[in-house]
Amino acid sequence: MSNAAGGRESLRRFSTARIVEHLALIALFLVLAATGLAQKFHHFELSQWLLSAAGGVDRARQLHHWAGAVLAALIAVHVVTAWVGIFAFRRSFAMLVTPQDFRNAVQDLRYHLAQRERPAACDRYDYKQKFTYWMILISCALMALTGLALWFPVTVARFLPGEAIPLAATLHSHQALVILLVVVVWHVYDSVLNPDVFPLDTSIFTGRMSRTRMRRLHPRELDRLERGSSESVGGGGAPAG
Amino acid sequence: MTGKAVRMLLALALCTGVGAAASETEACLACHADKGHAIEFPEGERIEAFVDEAEFRASVHGFLACTDCHDRTITPAGHEQRRFRSEELFKLRYSRICRRCHSDEEIAGTEVHDSLLAREADGHAPVCTDCHPAHAVRPAAGGLILAVEEHHCLECHADQAPAAPPAEVGPGDDRARRRVHHNLSCSGCHAGFSVTEHPQGAPAFDGAVPVAPEDICRRCHFDKYTKTHESIHFEMAGRGRPDTPTCLNCHGSHRIVNLSYDRVGSAGKCRECHPKLYATYAASVHGDALVSEHNRDVPICSDCHRAHDIGNPLTQDYRDDIPVMCANCHADAAIVGKYGLSTDVVRTYLSDFHGSTVSIYRDQEAGAYRLPRPIAVCTDCHGTHDIRSMTALGTAGTKALLLTKCRQCHEGAGSDFPDAWLSHYIPSMATAPALYLVDRAYRVLLPLLLLGMLLQVLLHAWRHATGRRGT
């Protein structure tokens, strides 16, 4: 994404911290998905190959536990910094789900069904990105809690009924599939295969997006920027909706 | 039938070969049915020229005339006398007479005859009458050699006579009573012995023997023999343990029955060396059913430990196989269904953490890293040789037992910890409502989520492809 003149000029959307955070998220997701799904579907040959590549199921579990712990820490830091940013530094809560998101979803549906000429005009994060964000965030919290119950069942069973352990196992196992679907079907389409961004929406890796693409995908944010607001950077940014 | 007809039939019979043979035999037996006649050879050897009339008439050659084999001129005064230099030459001559009717092609195909024919090719002609007594040849079906050898050998070794199978054979299966080696002669196993040969210092097959019994048995049972090389007993023998069992310790020697059909007897064989384990087993739910009911559904020692390739039960591989051993019966509704037991026990175990871990262990490479702690298998909770019915314990008793079992691996487990295991129940509203509802909800919502996202993706792509985009 070059910083060319005119319509090709690019605008900064993400700070370096966010870029690093996303890269860490990708790496941890791959490790957790590979070591976790290989256990869930252990009868598949690919799973057995993955488990043996990890050095056996016990090594794969150790890797899964510690990758999970790092991800949980990453999520905790993310939530705390967002909280501090929003409430202490009065930054905007751009990921907040608002009525506008539902209106945008309906508008896009009408657009998809050829009942409307233009797609919905979205702000800094469109309703699809918010859906992905909240699904991943809530799922990660659930996975961390249920994962802890599976990692330390004896300790957890001291405070909760014993049935909590198999319940945690079921939640952990099913929610893993939810995350997989959201990431593979939804997020990968939206950020990679989507004709609007194909071959890749690079903004989360470079931190920048071209004005042209901004105009098409995040018109409300661009309007606000052009009205004189400073360039938005970081987890906060332009006011929601 | 009139008297005239009877006379006609008798006349007809006299004109036929059968009638001629019969009259000739009678003439010969007039002298040879009595003992005292003998052929003597220059070296001092002597053969009785006695023929047991009853045996001869019952033999397969009873229809032959004497001169069919003894081709000499017989006159009313007697018969010509031939002279042989030795008994051996005499017998060889008569063996050649046997071969006039019994061609090489006919007799080939059995192990004994093939080896004799091979020796003959090297210049050692076989003597048929060594095995087939000249005037008492029995039908081949039914053990021609055995009959002769048994008669010969058992004159001294009567205590080894094959007899009825042991008394502990259970009722209900006649196959268990059938001797499996009834077609074998003594020399089939005791090589080098025959009606004429009896080496001194003979193998007794009871320990310090020049020929190990396995070496005899393997000639026919090579598959089983090969398996024994993977056995813990073979390993013990390699370490020089003198009490290592061989084939004969389990199967016996002269009264061998098929242990596959004699499950009580099979377990009894193990008992001889493992009496304490057997006593524990006999008091278990499985052993009790075997001993008191002769129940054929319950496992005996060899079902879990195998018969010939008995593995070391203290190895990790053996432990990993235990759920499969139990599943052999407990996943088979045709077996456990009869006793009101559910096949869910295996399914629920395998879908749980412990079961899936053991399944993965079984699938992964042998050298892969494993934590140095055991994963619970069936026997850790249910016991091994002392397995008892859990229903008799009741809910509280089962939970108390489970807690002690859990604590063997999970130190400090609280009293509620056993509830983490759903006791082989598939979650339902009755057994684990929260788990059941969560599971159902996901099973409904997951496909809906996938469908919704796919629809969104497809609609978006379709809208793009039709080219009616905004902007």
Alpha-carbon distance between the two ends of chain B: 124 Å
What percent strand of chain B? under 5%
Given helix and strand content, the structural type of chain A is: mainly alpha
**Share of β-strand residues of chain A:** under 5%
The largest sheet of chain B is: 2 strands, antiparallel
Number of contiguous helices of chain B: 25
**Rg over CA atoms of chain B:** 37 Å
The mean pLDDT of chain B is: 80
Total beta strand runs of chain B: 4
What is the overall shape of chain A?
globular
Largest sheet of chain A: 2 strands, antiparallel
Pair with the biggest interface: A-B, 50 and 52 residues
Low-confidence stretches of chain B: 1-18, 164-171, 205-210
Query: How many E-type strands of chain A?
Result: 2
First-last Cα distance of chain A: 27 Å
Report on the structure:
The complex is a heterodimer of chains A (241) and B (471). Chain A is an all-alpha fold and 241 residues long. Chain A has helices at residues 16-40, 45-53, 57-87, 99-112, 127-151, 153-159, 164-193, 203-206, 211-217, 219-226; strands at 10-12, 208-210. A two-stranded antiparallel sheet of chain A has the order 1-2. The two termini of chain A are 27 Å apart. With 471 residues, chain B is mainly alpha-helical. In chain B, a hairpin with a 2-residue loop joins strand 3 (74-75) and strand 4 (78-79). Chains A and B meet through helix 2, helix 3, helix 4, helix 6 and helix 7 of A and helix 22 and helix 25 of B.
